[in-house]
Amino acid sequence: xxxxxxxxxxxxxxxxxxxxxxxxxxxxxxxxxxxxxxxxxxxxxxxxxxxxxxxxxxxxxxxxxxxxxxxxxxxxxxxxxxxxxxxxxxxxxxxxxxxxxxxxxxxxxxxxxxxxxxxxxxxxxxxxxxxxxxxxxxxxxxxxxxxxxxxxxxxxxxxxxxxxxxxxxxxxxxxxxxxxxxxxxxxxxxxxxxxxxxxxxxxxxxxxxxxxxxxxxxxxxxxxxxxxxxxxxxxxxxxxxxxxx
Length: 245
Prior knowledge:
CATH architecture: 4-Layer Sandwich
Order of helices and strands: EHEEEHEHHHEEHEEEEEEE
Shape: globular
Number of strands: 14
């Protein structure tokens, strides 16, 4: 099984297309396909903060629909999903940029994008277990003991990471470094926490290299375990990247 895992896109459509081409994917109607049959896997957080969230939704929808990609939702995806359901969600931490895009399209296009996004979230699992259990795609990660479970506690972990219940000065939740104690045999590929370079630790790989904050958009090639990157066109925001000791 040959898979190219893509880190958090956050509306960075141009970088996503560049990365797909760099990986060898070729345009096919509204989608992309790889000449050697490789498939994509998105770790979630397709939208918010970046300039082209709606284009990203349309492209990933086409990829998943054409069986060219796997997708799992991230916390931003979950929030947009609840917004589309009419729930009372706060339009901040990036959602406001996606809503602004939605406010500038016709009712017909809004309805189309809403259907696409609901399809993505409702037809995808919380996390993917692939390659006979050797590969797990989970937005914020997952503990080895929880692989195979889908309860509320696991959902919170997969979407938000190992949160403590406390908040940082910028309003983001305080998260423990769960990968330090990961002891599973499966490789867990995740994003959620922006890092300057892909972080390999204990059979886990964080591939959110902060494209929307001026970093890079990263793909992890599996099973090769090599990375491919394109630079971001966004302004660099140093404080958004986490460093580990």
